[in-house]
Amino acid sequence: MKLNKIEVLAGISSFLATVYIVAVNPAILSASGMPFNAVVTSTVLVCFFGSLMMGIYAKNPIVVAPGMGMNAFFTYTAVLGMGLTYQQALGAVFWAGVLFLVLSIFNIREGVVKAIPKPIRHAVAAGIGLFICFIGFQNAHFVVANPATLVSLASLKDPHTLTFLAGLLFTAALLVRKVNGAIIIGIIFTTILAYPIGRWWGDAAAYNFGSQTVVNYTGFFSWPDYSLLFQADLWGSLKYSFLPIIFVFAFTDLFDSLSTFVGLSEASGLTDQNGEPKNLKESLITDSAATLFAGLVGSSPGTAFIESSVGISQGGKTGQTAIIAAFLFLPLMFLSPLVSLVPSVASSIALVLVGTFMLSPINKINWKDLSEGIPCFLALVLIPFTFSITQGIVFGLLAWTVLKFFSNKKSEISWVLIVINFLSLFALWV
């Protein structure tokens, strides 16, 4: 294969736009009890496998990596919220990949996708954005617990808060100026900024502000940690009460992938003769395979990254762009000690800003139609307020079904949606 200079540069650009996930994904998943260095390895493997398959099989210039939102759902809803072990949660990711793969291969996805109202999909995407933004503020200790009001703003006299604000505004300024790799540059800047005030991470936990404890740091490089490979509890994750987890992983991944492919194709002209996203079936199969693979190697689901638009805007039009990006991820498997130096005050910046990007679909919702606006509002706010993507989706769909029925808009309720409602409610009840 002869390399095209434009495609190579586009691949580098896409890599720089998405590489922040190698620091952020372990920061989120390690809260579930998974070893940090092992999650770095599994994250890189998912990025490499998914992007390489996207380039070779689907022939699209789209990077695949563990999805933002799904990693938060994995840790804060599945493990910490519903009590799954991380091994069971990995099993749920695997089965979600299998379900997604079946839907993609046999084109069943179209019926399922049509059953979920587009406005609810937009609301869920925005709700997930608020969810991961809230997690980012919490992890950065910018928003803290308050016994009187549940949450409140941290003290602006706290150097931790000031460091976070400085890093957030610096990174936002880079994004506004359309600097390639803005988020990863912002994370590095904030990590360096945090060092003088005692936020230097090493093999042990970070020491507190004002402490003189020295971290026993041994270097930037280490061999990859493969301890999470094949740790998924495939049979333990098939308990009936865990089915909502598999459902949310599969269908959120499906909706996210579809919206990404449609959005990128519309913006870049990557369409076929019918105006549909180029190689859509192959791209969805790649996404589902990346999710299945993620469950086996120890990560939350893999999905197409909207940040691939950076490489596409640089002229990337073929699978070469994704292939170049895939190989650029590989060396990071040997840099887990370096990645572990990134404090939560720095990695949280990515959560907040990506949450901002995910709010854009809400302008597609018809808020004046209350039979649409109320269900979308419930889905939007219940995801962050209940700390559960599952409950936001379930009650959004339930409200849609009930309100459309009583507003004489029964044509907007499909039998598939009714079945999904009953299964979801029953599973939550159990």
- Count of helical regions: 18
Number of domains: 2
Largest sheet: 2 strands, antiparallel
Instruction: Let me know the number of strands.
Output: 4
Radius of gyration: 21 Å
Structural class: mainly alpha
The best one-word shape is globular
Proportion of β residues? under 5%
Could you tell me the mean pLDDT?
83
C-alpha end-to-end distance: 54 Å
Listing every helix as H and every strand as E from the N terminus to the C terminus, the arrangement reads HHHEHHHHEEHHHHEHHHHHHH
Main location: membrane
Transmembrane segments: 7-28, 34-56, 63-83, 89-108, 120-140, 160-176, 183-202, 242-264, 284-306, 318-335, 341-362, 374-401, 413-429
Keywords: Membrane, Transmembrane, Transmembrane helix, Transport
Membrane topology: Multi-pass membrane protein
Draw up the topology in text.
Elements: H1 5-18, H2 21-29, H3 36-58, E1 64-66, H4 70-79, H5 86-105, H6 109-115, H7 118-139, E2 143-146, E3 150-153, H8 159-176, H9 182-194, H10 243-268, H11 280-297, E4 302-304, H12 309-313, H13 319-329, H14 336-339, H15 344-357, H16 370-385, H17 389-406, H18 415-429
Helix pairs in contact: 1-13, 2-3, 3-11, 3-13, 5-10, 5-11, 7-15, 7-16, 7-17, 8-9, 8-15, 9-15, 10-11, 16-17, 17-18
